[in-house]
């Protein structure tokens, strides 16, 4: 028996996940506070007083998660077993109709000098229209024989390539070409096991075909850096596992991609929290589960801008009353991972979580932050993949286990 899936029952309840990406932080040595401790977030603080609170470990203690596995864990999927490459997330994020066994690759259009060394890994963040032009150039010259090649723009310098075999199965296990720094040439494509060598050879051929046309397309020359080369597989949906009709309202393609992989419907067109609230309100009667993703907390953390991350938390707090006014039965406010401004990157720190429902034991925390949740949290510290079981129980959607 797989728990909690085997105990799921129908109920007339609404669940809201308000995910502030990268929310967790660490103590800034100059201020003596985390970003959450420094933020004025009265709505979240008041909700936390009437909620269960605690800390979640996205993967395992000390492990720094990517956004993919961290979000999979939030929705109750094992983040290790379900770990998926960035290429699949990128393709799914733009709504590309992936099939089981496709190989998907994230592309960064970079610029290189006359020696082939990377000048800018993002080509100056070219406009999406320029990315579309480069994708058209690639589509006109790339030919891999019996393997179909789909090339799609994503946003700015980012694109996606999908390989689909008409015959033998394709295997992943090919390393990235992005060196993650400038002043050096792109890395070589390396097959990590013998079965991946055919795909590595195809991608070498693709790069060779692309080299001259892309070099002629700009000054300095464009070059496609390949990242997150991954094989797509089908996951059981939120509807299949939990009986939840689910809607995702996100502003970034990757989080839409995660949602699509898990069978959620995805709202298109939202640009900010106001749009996201309007979308949730318009669809309130049609769904049981709403995933609202807020990116600014993570982005400002990666910028290393403590004050801007504080401001982002305060912006999310100010928008929360509109969602609460819709009357969700269960509300979760948390993050996928921590992105401390001090580190300018994701980290392995645990993340604070609050779970509000009429059944919640009130934690009584005066301020929703990492240390208060650790000290007073009724939930303690637990793996993020166990969150959905708690949510379903509070939503009245789980039967009793055993006699």
Blueprint of the fold:
Blueprint (H helix, E strand, L loop, with lengths): L14 E6 L14 H4 L3 H8 L2 E6 L9 H8 L11 H8 L9 E10 L5 E3 L7 H14 L5 E9 L2 E8 L31 H19 L5 E11 L6 H5 L3 E4 L3 H9 L3 E2 L6 H10 L6 E6 L1 H7 L3 H19 L5 E5 L16 E6 L13 H7 L3 E4 L3 H8 L9
Parallel strand pairs: 1-10, 1-11, 2-13, 8-9, 8-10
Antiparallel strand pairs: 2-12, 3-4, 3-6, 3-7, 5-6, 11-12
Helix pairs in contact: 4-8, 5-6, 9-11, 10-11
Structure description:
The chain is an alpha/beta fold. It has two domains: 5-82 and 235-394, 3-Layer(aba) Sandwich (Alkaline Phosphatase, subunit A), CATH 3.40.720.10; 90-231, Alpha-Beta Plaits, CATH 3.30.70. It has helices at 35-38, 42-49, 67-74, 86-93, 128-141, 197-215, 238-242, 253-261, 273-282, 296-302, 306-324, 370-376, 387-394, and strands spanning 15-20, 52-57, 103-112, 118-120, 147-155, 158-165, 221-231, 246-249, 265-266, 289-294, 330-334, 351-356, 380-383. Strands 9-8-10-1-11-12-2-13 form an eight-stranded mixed β-sheet, with helices on both faces. A hairpin with a 5-residue loop joins strand 3 (103-112) and strand 4. The model has no long low-confidence stretch (mean pLDDT 95).
CATH class of the largest domain: Alpha Beta
**Mean pLDDT value:** 95
Q: For the record, what is the CATH homologous superfamily label of the largest domain?
A: Alkaline Phosphatase, subunit A
CA-based shape: globular
CATH-defined topology of the largest domain: Alkaline Phosphatase, subunit A
Give the CATH architecture of the largest domain: 3-Layer(aba) Sandwich
End-to-end Cα distance, whole Å, is 15 Å
Topology as a string of helices (H) and strands (E): EHHEHHEEHEEHEHEHEHEHHEEHEH
Which regions are unreliable across 5 or more consecutive residues at pLDDT < 50? none
What Rg, in angstroms, do the CA atoms define? Answer: 22 Å
């Amino acid at each position: 028996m797989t728990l909690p899936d085997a105990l799921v029952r129908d109920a007339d309840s609404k669940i809201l996940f308000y995910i502030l990406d990268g929310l967790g932080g660490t103590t800034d040595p100059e201020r003596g506070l985390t970003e959450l401790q420094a933020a004025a977030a009265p709505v979240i603080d008041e909700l936390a007083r009437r909620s269960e609170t605690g800390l979640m470990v996205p993967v395992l203690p000390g492990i720094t998660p990517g956004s993919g596995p961290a979000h999979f864990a939030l929705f109750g999927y094992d983040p290790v077993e379900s770990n998926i490459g960035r290429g699949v997330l990128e393709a799914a994020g733009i709504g590309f109709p992936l099939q089981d066994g496709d190989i998907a690759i994230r592309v960064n259009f970079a610029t290189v000098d006359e020696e082939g060394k990377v000048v800018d890994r993002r080509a100056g963040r070219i406009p999406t229209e320029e990315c579309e032009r480069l994708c058209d150039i690639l589509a006109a010259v790339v030919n891999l024989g019996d393997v179909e090649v789909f090339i799609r723009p994503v946003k700015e310098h980012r694109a996606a390539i999908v390989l689909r075999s008409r015959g033998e199965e394709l295997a992943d296990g090919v390393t990235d070409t992005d060196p993650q720094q400038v002043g050096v040439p792109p890395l070589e494509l390396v097959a990590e096991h013998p079965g991946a060598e055919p795909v590595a050879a195809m991608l070498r051929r693709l790069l060779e075909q692309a080299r001259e046309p892309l070099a002629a397309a700009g000054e300095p020359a464009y070059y496609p850096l390949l990242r997150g080369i991954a094989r797509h597989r089908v996951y059981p949906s939120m509807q299949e596992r939990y009986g939840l009709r689910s809607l995702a309202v996100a502003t970034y393609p990757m989080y839409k991609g995660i949602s699509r992989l898990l069978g959620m419907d995805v709202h298109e067109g939202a640009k900010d929290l106001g749009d996201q609230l309007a979308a949730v309100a318009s669809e309130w009667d049609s769904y049981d589960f709403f995933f609202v993703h807020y990116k600014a907390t993570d982005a400002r953390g990666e910028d290393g801008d403590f004050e801007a991350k504080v401001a982002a938390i305060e912006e999310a707090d100010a928008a929360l009353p509109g969602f609460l006014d819709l009357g969700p039965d269960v509300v979760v406010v948390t993050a996928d991972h921590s992105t401390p401004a001090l580190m300018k990157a994701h980290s392995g720190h645990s993340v604070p979580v609050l779970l509000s429902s009429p059944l919640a034991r009130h934690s009584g925390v005066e301020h929703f932050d990492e240390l208060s949740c650790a000290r007073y949290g009724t939930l303690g510290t637990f793996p993020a993949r166990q969150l959905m079981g708690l949510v379903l129980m509070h939503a009245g959607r789980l039967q009793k286990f055993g006699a």
